Amino acid sequence: MYDSFLVRKGSLRNFKEDGKVAGFCFGVRIANYRGVFLSLHNGYYVEVDGESYPVALQRFGVNGKPPRSFEELKNNAVYEHWDMQDEATLYIMKEGGLTPGVHRVGILESILCSYGRMPRDEEIVKNPPVPTPNVHGQGGGGSKTTDVSYFDLELQE
Amino acid sequence: MIKRSVSLYSYQQNEFFGWMDWKAQLREIALNLDGADGVEIINETTIPNYPCPPEAWIYEWRSELARWGLQAVTMDTFLDTLQFRDHVMTYREAGERIRYDLELAHKMGFRNMRLCHHTPYQAVEMNLDLAAKYDIIMTNECDVRSLDLGHMMGDSIESEIAFIERTKTKHYGLQIDMSQFQNKPCCIQLRYRFRTAGFSPERAAEAAEDIFQTFEKIGREATNEYIKEKYPEIAGGPFPALHMHANPIGRMYEIIPYLVHMHGKFYEMTEVPGKPGLYEDRALPYEEVFKHLKKSGYNGYISSEFEGQRSQQDMGLEGLIDEVDQVRKHQQMMKRFIEDKHNNTPF
Amino acid sequence: MAIKRGVSLYSYQQEEWFGRWTWRDQLREVALNLDGADGIEIISEATIPQYPYPSEAFIDEFNTEMARWGLQATTLDAFPDPLQFRRDHVMNDAEMAERLKIDLRLAKKLGMKNIRVLGNTIDSVKLALPLAEELDITISQEIHFPSPIKRDPNSQRYNKIMDILEYIEKTGTKHYGFQPDFGVFRTAPSDVYLGYYFRMAGYEEYAEHVKAVMEAFKCMSYEDLVEWAKKTYPKVFNGGWADGELRPASAAPEELKLIAPYIYCVHGKFFHMMEMPDRPGEYEDLAVDSEGAIRVLKEIGYEGYIDSEYEGQRSQQDRGEAYLASEIEEVRRHQKMLKRLIEEA
Predict the structure, then answer these.
(1) Above 80 in pLDDT, residue B7?
(2) pLDDT digits (tens, 9 = 90+) for B173-186
(3) What's the rounded Cα separation, in Å, for the pair B241 and B228?
(4) pLDDT band, residue A135 (cuts 50/70/90)
């Protein structure tokens, strides 16, 4: 779902923390026809130029608040909503950021929303799945989009 | 069957120091009190941004209750008549304040709402229809500061009952606080009083115990004389050293038909002599009161309302009393009296 | 009285997502271009800004726009999300009821008569029923593919629909019922979904293969079909979502009679409207037995809404803007079909 639209073209840029380039970021949209409570967001499978960046390196900027880790969203954004229409910013911590030029970005969203209680729910509370590609129905990734979507993005100034 | 609840008032010290938030308090009630399932709150303590908490907080509150299967029993409210400093709150303004609290109580799922003492009937009456719409019973409380069981709100039980009968309301009633029946000295308060009069903690403890034992032997009036002679340091001041209502328990029957809720006020749970693992508050005749409550057929809630913490906050962090432990012991005691089959037929 | 037509704004999800059409544009489309359709169904977390705490201004504006166009609010679609509290536990029934109560109150504010539930447990709905009664809003269990309707005497499988029916009949509640989705009456795999799965498996040309699968569906048993499809297209039918396209209908239109008095809304699910070969200007969806379903609904005297629920857009969003489906056109065609089937003798 929205496979080729999930990352906004022209949104890839490096960001600074304490005066130094601390990583890169880009704009993302939800792969769903509805919004969700942010506690359900389990992060992304992200790869850039073939290198993957685990959830621990990811921060999520949404609702006008400073970037938060997905652990923080899980624990403290239980009643805060990500509206379907809103673009969020996905920050990836990487010292020095990305080099100028075009980069191939692949993402797969892992949001744990569902239509009802599922047998794996208890297990997911204890051990949230690691977002990974090609895990149809395994809970590892994919909301309504089930495969990694790729984007060729030029790093902006 | 009498049901057990906890007023989060009991955890005020934990709340003050930020050691337990309201969610931790609900969890404690649900998991560690052997069947207690009611929650009472102080509106201006538990509710963030009172009187306008975010909708998200209301949802969180309801969800937490749902998670633990807890009942929202009573919300305690206040009526600060000097809120508007250019004039004393009018009846209409008081009515508006109550209305706001009713809206909150409704959103949070409470079945009762305790009004402040001295709430004018005019302000109550303005809200009877709203209370009926939400099916919330407003209650007036007889507490230690009301002079006597017969002088609540500066009015009498007769006027309370007359108000209920005149309006024919099912949404106004009475609640009673255990402190009304305190009939023995409260040692934890006496120790505090001695310490503030300059006694060392050890000497304060000895003196308090001495007063308690003396009281047991010679009674209230003689003990007052004894204190004046032996402990003149604490004999003066606005409150008498032996500060207690000692209302006759039998007077409870006067208000039983209108009784909606009970405050299980307590100050210090101590082990019953000779019965390891069982606890009591020596100042309060709980066993006797429960006999009458059960005889009367009362089947509402009684909330643990711990008030001893403030008597030990003069001695640094190490001197603080453990509220969680005190409530657990109090709930254990109440359960014992509620379930005691031999405790059913007084007199 | 006859069956009434409405639209679930779910159908316009892509317009909404891209921000090309707001809910106001969607209401105007329903009011002006669908020849008498006047029902509006919404998805709670798609249409309501700052769900679940929209501003009073939004509530007012929504009700005003509905009044402007003379539209009727039919149904709010709600979700339980049992992992909302996954920081330490799975949502229990009472918590699920609290979430539903939030949605019930929202539904009331938006003038909705009905709320659609799907994965909510029966016990959680029971806890919310008193509020539903107070607000006079019906709670409808959606019957969505692959849910059956009738109980299969040869199967031990839990049948939620029949359990709910028993509860309704035992208690006589007027506020718990059903919302069947035409997707259960499927007659073929959806060509647009098959196309998507073939593309995901690396196919560039696949129109013939899609046709072959649809033909095979008609003439083979399910077991034979699965075996044939996995052998013929191993990269497509590999245990993933594509396999679901091979499954047969989970219920027959006749089974609607079992739940007839308790149907409070209907989802006119569809995937791809095509012109009928023998009737130029008329449309049909080859994957859904809308005709059979509407015939039975008429037989049982159903007088509520059928809300168009278009779901074909999702399978065409992998190739850039040029390939996106036109939700507006698809819904117009579907409404034309609904009108024809409702009015035909």
Answers:
(1) yes
(2) 999 899 889 999 99
(3) 9
(4) low
- CB spacing of A34 vs C79 below 8 angstroms: yes
Mean pLDDT of chain B: 90
Span B88-110, pLDDT tens digits: 888 999 999 999 999 999 999 99
Statement to judge: residues C269 and C233 lie in one domain = no
Rounded (5°) CA angle A112-A49-A155: 95
Which of C232, C248, C264 lies at the terminal end of a domain, its last residue?
C248
* Touching partners of C (3+ C-beta pairs < 8 Å): A, B
pLDDT at C37 over 80: yes
Q: How many CB atoms lie within 10 A of CB A21?
A: 14
Q: Are residues B226 and B255 in the same domain?
A: no
Q: Which residue of A has its CA nearest to C43?
A: A34
Domain that residue C20 falls in: 4-187+249-343
Q: State how far the Cα of B174 lies from the Cα of B112, in Å rounded to an integer.
A: 11
pLDDT over 80 (residue B347)? no
| CB-CB under 8 Å, C95 with B63 | yes
Instruction: Compare all CA atoms of chain A with the CA of C77 and give the residue at the minimum distance.
Output: A34
> In B5-120, which residue ranges form alpha helices assigned H by DSSP?
12-17, 22-32, 43-46, 55-68, 91-108
Give ipTM to 2 decimals. 0.77
| Residue A24 reports pLDDT greater than 80 | yes
| Domain span holding position B64 | 3-184+245-343
Q: How far is B62 from chain C (nearest CA, A)?
A: 7
Alpha carbons B143 and B148: distance in angstroms, whole number: 8
Residue of B63, B65, B71, B106 to mutate, testing the C interface (most C Cβ within 10 Å of its Cβ): B63
Nearest CA in chain B to A37: B56
Cα(C5)–Cα(C18) distance, integer angstroms: 26
Answer whether residue B131 shows pLDDT above 90.
yes
Q: Does B133 touch chain C (CB under 8 A)?
A: no
Give the gap in angstroms from C-alpha A138 to the nearest C-alpha of chain B.
27
Interchain CB contact of B251 with C (< 8 Å): no
Q: What is the CATH number of the domain that holds B67?
A: 3.20.20.150
Q: Are C270 and C290 in contact (CB under 8 A)?
A: yes
pLDDT at A138 exceeding the cut of 60: no
Residue B210 sits at the chain A interface (C-beta within 8 Å)? no
In chain C, the residue whose alpha carbon lies closest to the alpha carbon of B54 is C53
According to DSSP, residue B322 is labeled -
Chosen domain end from C228, C248, C268: C248
- Say if residue C177 is in the same domain as residue C194: no
Number of domains in chain B: 2
